[in-house]
Batch of 3 targets.
Target 1
Amino acid sequence: MPADLPLDRAARPLTEPAGSTGAGERTWRRKELTDYDWYYQLPRWEAYFAVIAGFGLVLAWTTTTNRTDQLVASGLLVGLIGWWIAFGRRMYTLHRQSLGHGLTYVLGALALLVPLLVVNQQCSWVLFSITPQIFMVLESDLISSFAVSVCCLLPALVAFLTGGVNSEFWSELTIGIGVAGISLLINSATERIARQSAERAKLIAELQASRAQVVDLSREAGVAAERERLAGEIHDTLAQGFTSILTLVQAAAGELARSPDRTRAHLDLAARTARENLSEARALVGALTPAALGSGSLADAIGRQAARLTEEAGVETEFDTDFDTDGEPGALPTAAEVVLLRTAQEALTNVRKHARARSVRITLGAEQGRVWLTVADDGMGFDPATPSEGFGLRGMRNRVEQVGGTLTVDSGPTGTTVRVEVGR
């Protein structure tokens, strides 16, 4: 297939599987190759036919001095040209090949060719244009090969009828057999090339379809990943913040009659949590860095989460760190900082909601190119292997895996330790 064949033509889907062409079907003229034939093959073949016809006219006037023979030979050559244009070419371009139409064209060509050879045997050069035309108009390999062989042997038959078995006969017979063999070989090669072109067109069409499918799957995977990310963000920020606000409002309602000062403190803390939730929501909508990281380092953000746990739940919280990413060479990527912060938030939320712990120890450190965070409490613990309907532990694990980190959870009757490590 030519490299410059337009992609929309080269990749036209085929109506049958590649390689399924029957023995009697002309691959290079199948309906699927209409554009390829019309735009590329036919003009080149007709240029070739014109050269052969012109050479035949030259031979008709230079190989004999008999004016009558010259005029008759020229007329027969012009008749062959007109027969192709009026019938053979029209049948080929409109894809109306049938056995009846094809044989009609071949018989008409023979009716003009035989007297041409009788008048001037040197005009047998016209066979070089007749043989490809036969392959073009006959769809059966067997019949077209037989017709081509007959045409190529016509000069030998004419030599036999006019002079018997002589040297000219044997010469024409040898040349005819050779030309017939070459024609059949060329046709076989053309068939193979055309079949490969059809198969390549089918492969290109399949490749384009597969590429479109990959694009769709990638889009769906991206949507699913973004949905998972947003679910984690909402769970780790807004949902937890709303839970804190609800807890503080309930506590304020319980203290309303007994202690106005404690009520006011609870309401102030609820208002501050609501403002932080609003900042998180704006950052989430804008796909920005979490609000907690926008106003300080990772250590500062985790320290504020620890202080909030003490204020809201009265749990004694200790935060130790010798790691600060602010301005440090090789500091953590933002994605890794977000994972560490969200892990700390989720772990502290679980302490407040489920652990019934009296104290929590949070440690942030770095060693050998990795940053690690541990959150350890002295609460009642749980079984990490037990399936849970919640998003917390599963969300933490998914987040850590996305940045190539590791998450370990060790829990028992004496407490729970969550440890996460990420690369720098």
Target 2
Amino acid sequence: MGGAVRDKCLNLPVKERDWVVTGATPDDMLKQGFRQVGKDFPVFLHPDTHEEYALARTERKIAAGYKGFETSFDSAVSLEEDLQRRDLTINAIAETPNGAFVDPFNGLQDLKYKILRHVSPAFVEDPVRILRIARFSARFFSLGFHIAPETYLLMQQMVENGEVDALVPERIWKEVSRALTEQHPAEFFKVLNHCQALSRLFPEFIDYFENALNALNQAVQITQNPSLRWAALCHDLTFAQFTALHQRLHLPKEFIELPQLIIQYAETCRQTSTIEEKLKLLEKLDAFRRPDRFEDFLTVCQILTIDISTLKQTLQLAQQIDVQLIIRKGFQGSAIKNALFDARVAHIKSNGHIFCC
């Protein structure tokens, strides 16, 4: 039901099916061999298929934020009542076991006309829905989907009323990280900007918005790696801005290190001219010890149209010098590092053609 029905109607791969159960209690499910999972509401795994079966439920807003809901799992809750709490009409379509559609909010029609439309005025009660509809815009942009004007209006009202300010960092990042894997992730940020949520959630991007999106679009042409796409998006930020951003959103390590390197050193790649400068830059990038991360750095530089060819040549030639040869010559302590550096410079000058430009 929901997303599975939507993707089936769009001829997209259906990755999983989730079932809604009406007229039952948790005890009824347990007696039939289902295993309960989750603490917030009764969701059960089928004993054989392991598909998820959730009891039909209703929600009532009782406090600010996306957690401020009171949920009811009464066995009298109907399927239509359960569907009414969904965010978008295209996610509020159910399919019975015999293949009949249950579509009380005209989701099939909105699928036909490529419209992302809210189910009910209760849409405004959950600020996560702003992020979700932005992510759906990124996912279905190539299919021609657009957000209904009345839905955009509700999103803007949610921002003005401060609902978006109640979003917790982990929930924000979850939607952002998923959006970065979509075919058109820039649409996610465009939607947030259109409804004025960008300045509340990502104020650091406001002054660099067009450049950031151009870099993100270029990244999509080169890599599917979300951490590389994120680094390209953040390339124009100052180090202080990015620090504030990643601390506020509690970013995973793999989404912190690479943008920091890009912000600090990408432009330096344009300015290094001598072999000595290039070697010092490679050391700052820890390219000798962390070649995989260095390759990621080079990919983002490529996205940003920064010529890194001579830097790669420098590394390849420098790696031909074995530090053990330096040690066997009697160098010790900090002298090893200096001797290794000098040996690398000499080797590159005598064996390579590093362009000084």
Target 3
Amino acid sequence: SVKDQGATLEGRFAFANEIVHLHFRIIDNYVYGADPAPSLRNLPYGPNIRQRLDVYLAKSSTLTPVAVYFHGGAWLRGDKSDLRGHHRFLDAGISVIAVDYRYIPSENPDATTHDMARAIQFIRHHASTWNLDPHRLGVWGVSAGACTSLWLGTHPDLADPTSPDPISRQSTRPTCVSAIAPQTSLDPIQMRAWVGPQLIYGPHAFALKSFAAFLAQRDQLRPWINAYSPAALLTKTSAPIFLDYLNFGLQPYDPASGYYTHSPRFGIGFLELAKKRNAECYLHYEGHEADRYTSWHQFLIEKLRN
């Protein structure tokens, strides 16, 4: 039967090769396919085929805020077509942009983050053309896309005001960040201290094949970890952040491997850092409601409309 928003579903589900126990919380309830098509599709913000974005413009006679979506997929897969539920932003008078980016190649693991920063600059450069307010630009992402969204919100602004390229002069810092099931640290010792020894996710971000190699090469990787890990970059000047682990609770659901990759313990560790560093951060996971905001999308809407 059809369930209301906020309802939970739990049971055993049969897939091609296995039967697993899954637990879901309904975060939005709408007719599939009801979300609007893009106003502008596959606009290039760089020369690579993956450097493309879709623009969904809210109807307004005045400048609209904009929420920018970065898909998940471990920086190895996924697509901007994964966007769902953007009607809630458009209905609130907030335009939406979904971004594709280059996957992590072994010879250049930082291509993903540079693409996302460039996309933000490209959007701000074209803000007046698209009737957007460049000063009210929020970002959200899922999993790896959420991790890089946090990177944008915690990294110092990459704008180069003296650049001959007008796009490079634009700010890369978002107004606010909603991160859905993010990995909040890229330090292997910190990650396992927060989540547990079962965690094996992360070495591929640095072109490594195993977590053992990740741990063994931590000292050599320290400059990169400091440059790309949200936990290392977080300060009191970071953008306001909402971490939402949806239906994940402190006890893992089967299958456990997916749980540890998206464990809310990533959020607990990050929230403690935020408190120590006087950064604005909110956390939701099953069994724990965030202060003030009920969900990641309510947080974005309220922050962008104020």
